[in-house]
Amino acid sequence: MTQTGPLGPLHSRRVSAGDIAYEYLKNAILDGRLAAGESLLEEQLALQLQVSRTPLREALQRLESDELVVRQSNGRLLVAPLSVQQVEELFTVRSLIEGLVARQATERMTPEVLEKLRRITETMEQAAREGRTEAVSLHGEEFHTLLYGLSQNRYTIRLLAQLKDQIRRYRRIGPVSDAERAVRAAGEHRRMYEFMAAGRGREVELAMRSHIEASLASAVASVAKLLEK
User: Fold this and answer.
1) How many CA atoms lie within 13 A of 94 on its CB side?
2) Strands (E), 16-160
3) What is the residue range of 71's domain?
4) Model pTM?
5) How many domains does the chain have?
6) What are the start-end ranges of the E strands in 64-188?
7) Which of 17, 18, 102, 226 is the most exposed place for a label (fewest CB within 10 A)?
8) CB 11: neighbour CB atoms within 10 A?
9) CA distance 74 to 61
């Protein structure tokens, strides 16, 4: 059975209505279709998503736990606001964790993965030259995902997964919309790749941390600019 609403089709195969509502609302928030600070009215959402109030409330409670939705003192629900402080905290933690992951991945590097990283790096550089900023961001995520798997560190990967959704809200504001930042990001991945090819794990760790700190600076500037409007 497939249901359709303005936020997208709802496929209810082997999942509950609450799960469906949660996934679609979460993605709508992370993708910006539901804007920061926007009111979430249960009656309206139930009609749009074609679900009953009970599973919708379950979904909204999960989004509250994820800190993607906030409840005001009067009970009104809003999409969580963007915050400079939050982006600083998220990216600082991410830089430390991903630096470790990058070093461990370098220590376990294989010729096959190194070749994949080389191709991804070249694709990112080409996309950056052509001004395809979203492609740079997507290929960068592919680069990082390869390192996660190679690191074999389940605990750091689990921590990164917990940060992923919140970080996604901010990453889409930075390199995705900033052509100059996309060019620099491609160059930072080139630097990491070259250190990996040389087996220099400590330098890879520092380069990864520097890369994420640069992304942080871009995200902070972007968020601050949005908040001024």
Assistant:
1) 26
2) 39-40, 69-71, 77-79
3) 2-79
4) 0.76
5) 2
6) 69-71, 77-79
7) 226
8) 14
9) 16
